[in-house]
Specification:
Length: 231
């Protein structure tokens, strides 16, 4: 049975709908919470078969309100890249992955938006990425992948929605398994919230089934390319 190490930056942001897909493939996952008292970023030699870096709510990485463990997580992600350990970065996690891969992040206001992303080629995620799929973003700042990264999908503003570094590292600016309760909990957990959330909540309710449907092939492609069923 394979295992993933998952770093949370807030208790409200977790794997969401992705949990069932990992469990159904007998892939275990262990959440680590550096933001709690006594919590630490894990050392590379304690990482299992892959690393997942989750979103951070209002935490970012471009200097305005950086997550406190940014430097440690960049070093960890860089070590995983050097050893070809699979990485999945979501939201803030995608920013950390971009920085670790010699890209960067750029400042952007805290945003909660629901729209659509479009793949850039039929081969994306081994051909499993849907041509068009819901893109749910709750994030401050924005990743800028390095020039050598493969951009697999773009959002409605032509920003990277999914990018690939090497064979088995993937950054998602939106959360592919986002659940309504996650947004509600993020807003309650922090004093800072996006400027206008009503429209995003309305859109999120309408695309719930589309999120579930798009996640099925997306997870199939991710599992294949990360080799988690074979490692």
């Amino acid at each position: 049975m394979q295992s993933l190490t998952i770093i949370q930056h807030t208790s409200a942001d977790y794997l969401g709908l992705m949990e069932d897909h990992f469990e159904g493939r007998l892939i275990r996952f262990n959440y680590t919470r550096p933001f709690t008292e006594g919590g630490l970023v894990p050392e590379f030699d304690t990482i299992g078969d892959g690393l997942v870096l989750l979103g951070g709510g209002p935490w970012g990485s471009a200097g305005g309100r950086d997550v406190p463990t940014l430097d440690e997580e960049v070093r960890l992600a860089r070590a995983c890249l050097m050893h070809e350990t699979p990485i999945l970065g979501i939201g803030l996690g995608a920013q950390i992955l971009a920085i670790a891969a010699e890209g960067r992040s750029e400042p952007a206001d805290l945003d909660f938006s629901v729209g659509y992303a479009t793949r850039t080629g039929e081969e994306a995620l081994n051909g499993y990425l849907p041509e068009r799929f819901p893109h749910v973003c709750y994030m401050r700042d924005r990743p800028v992948p390095p020039d050598y990264a493969d951009i697999l999908a773009v959002d409605e503003k032509s920003h990277p929605a999914i990018f690939q570094i090497g064979k088995s590292a993937f950054g998602f600016t939106g959360h592919p398994g986002f659940k309504l309760g996650m947004a509600e909990d993020l807003i309650m957990e922090f004093e800072e919230a996006p400027a206008d959330t009503r429209l995003a909540f309305d859109k999120l309710r309408k695309v719930r089934t589309e999120i579930e449907d798009a996640l099925v092939p997306t997870m199939t492609g991710l599992i294949q390319l990360t080799g988690l069923m074979r490692r």
